[in-house]
Amino acid sequence: MKSGAPLLYAAGVFSASVACAGSLKAEPLPLSHGSYVQADLACEGAPLAALRTYDGQGLGGPHDSKCVSRIVDAHGKTYRIATSCAAAGDGSPVAPTTTSETVFVQSRRSFKIADGSAGDQGGVSYKLCPGSK
């Protein structure tokens, strides 16, 4: 009869490495919390499509809530994130969806974002709205 010890050890090492990797990747983005608007627009009167929010947990759009962003990969100030939102803007539950985006942090108050397939090409720049928390 073969011992299961090597398999248990391997499973334990794999579980520990996944747990450690998960905790490292769950760090928040280095951005101030608040409402962001496209950099070329004024905060007041901006259309909803030009807004993003960051609460330290997730980077969401104007119709999202209960968002959680996970850092998939990071190089310097460039972060590939996967964001899942579990509710619509009014708080009503929705089937969670996950989007992939690349965030280029320019400062704690500004960033550029592109969908996961665009890399550093294209994208939209955002700035923090004054008084936003």
- The number of domains is 1
**What is the string of helix and strand elements?**
HEEEEEEEE
Radius of gyration, Cα only, in angstroms?
18 Å
Largest sheet: 8 strands, antiparallel
Broad CATH class:
Mainly Beta
- What would you say the CATH architecture is? Beta Barrel
**Span of the ends, CA to CA:** 62 Å
Number of helices: 1
Helix content bin: 10-25%
CATH topology name, in short, is: Lipocalin
* Category by helix and strand content: alpha+beta
Q: What overall geometry do the principal axes of the alpha carbons give? A: globular
Q: Strands across the major sheet, in which order?
A: 3-2-1-8-7-6-5-4
Q: Give start-end ranges of low-pLDDT stretches.
A: 1-25
What fraction of the residues are assigned to beta strands by DSSP? over 45%
Give the averaged pLDDT, no decimals: 79
Can you walk through the features of this model?
Residues 1-21 form the signal peptide. This is DUF3617 family protein. With 133 residues, the chain is α+β, with helices and mostly antiparallel strands. The chain has a single domain (28-128), classed as Lipocalin. The protein contains one helix and eight strands, in the order H-E-E-E-E-E-E-E-E. The protein has one helix spanning 5-25, and strands at residues 34-38, 51-54, 59-60, 64-75, 78-88, 93-107, 110-115, 124-128. An eight-stranded antiparallel β-sheet has the order 3-2-1-8-7-6-5-4, with no helix packed on it. The longest helix has 21 residues, at 5-25. It is globular. It starts with a helix and ends in a 5-residue tail after the last strand. Mean pLDDT is 79; it is low at 1-25.
